TrEMBL record:
Lineage start: Bacteria, Candidatus Woeseibacteriota
Function of the protein: Catalyzes the transfer of a dimethylallyl group onto the adenine at position 37 in tRNAs that read codons beginning with uridine, leading to the formation of N6-(dimethylallyl)adenosine (i(6)A).
Keywords carried by this UniProt record: ATP-binding, Magnesium, Nucleotide-binding, Transferase, tRNA processing
Subunit structure: Monomer.
GO biological process: tRNA modification
Cofactor entry: Mg(2+)
EC top class, as a word: transferase
Family listed: Belongs to the IPP transferase family.
Keyword Manganese in record: no
Species for this entry: Candidatus Woesebacteria bacterium RIFCSPHIGHO2_02_FULL_39_13
Name of protein: tRNA dimethylallyltransferase
Feature type site, description Interaction with substrate tRNA: T135, R158
Binding site for ATP: G17, P18, T19, A20, T21, G22, K23, T24
Amino acid sequence: MDAPTLNLRPKLLIVCGPTATGKTELALHLAEVLVSDSKIYSGVEIVSGDSRQVYKNMDIGTGKGLPKGAKYKISNLKFKNKTIGYYEIDRVKIWGYDLVNPKEAYSVSKYTEIADEILKNIWERRKLPILVGGTGLYIKSLVSGIETISIPQNKSLRRSLGKKSAPELFEILAQLDPVKAGSLNTSDSKNPRRLVRAIEIAQWKLKRIKRKKTYQKKNLDSVFIGLYAPKEMLEKRIQERIQERLKKGIEDEIKRLLKSGVYWEDQSMQSLAYKEWKGYFAGSKTKDEVIKNWENDEKNYVKRQMIWFKTNLNIHWFDITKPVYPNDVEKMVKEWYISK
RNA sequence: GUCAAGGUGGCGGAGUGGACAAUCGCACCAGACUGUAAAUCUGGCGCCCGAACGGGCUACGGGGGUUCGAAUCCCUCCCUUGACA
């Protein structure tokens, strides 16, 4: 992946934006037009940049949008001795779904490791990957990398820190790494999860000062396409999508998950479209309440996504309520692809 | 009609004589965030003035009263719910 010259920088097209904007549809559309339009494209494949679609058997709630007969195919790509599969929709390969089962914990680091392999493989086959997703951090980690990503979790440390309050954690961090502690903003300095990770990193660094950094900055030629819509429009789409998912059988999907041994406490079940049902299955919530909560959670999620995208990435935004927007995207992407 | 329990901010729901513009949850607004990121976390949230310490006004169903002081006590009216008729 290390390219000696600028010309050989691998190209990566990114389609991102908040939930319910039709990112995958656009990507599929782009795949089609790019391939059919010109001889330069030997093919386009989609990679999901999403923290929830990695879970098997969670299709409806995470919005994988798989057509009825969609089959998971095994590729000859392997990661840590495990095969990696993909789906094919409209003859386009989609990677990054169904990477783990819902009992497993997941994180950016796991995602990045495997997604890097997938991307490398796509580039080796001289195809253009389109990274599609709404998990900003995951996308950013693929594009720019994360410096401390190779610093592993320390389970026993986490366990011992588990019950400490934010001020206590902050105190511990301040002892280990005063600079880091001082650099935290008011929000993070009160965020137990962040503090624990910061302590984890600080401790790790203290232990191995001499270890050389393995971190390498990535060198990609990438463009960010962002999809958005006015708030009211998005809210309407969210409502419609919820109805759709109810019809598709989200309730049964959850029943199946629970039956197979997945707990509400599992990370996968903290996902939107799933977590809201907990009270319902416990008998303390009506379905209407579930739907109301679900809708609210989706709306709030969109807000957080937009804030993150706006402040963290340099994105070319497209309003999906403009009928011609796919053409605009197409034009832009083609220019970008041909350049250099 | 009688009895009982109630009427608090957009909603739910605390407070039951001063520390109350009123805990908390939801909603809403503005944000943070490089190993759980669909997660986690922060701030704001009656109106007006002020950069800020702060100040002013209006508010706990309506009206009236007691009191230095009332969302909290008393009277009365209106409304809701439950029970008995």
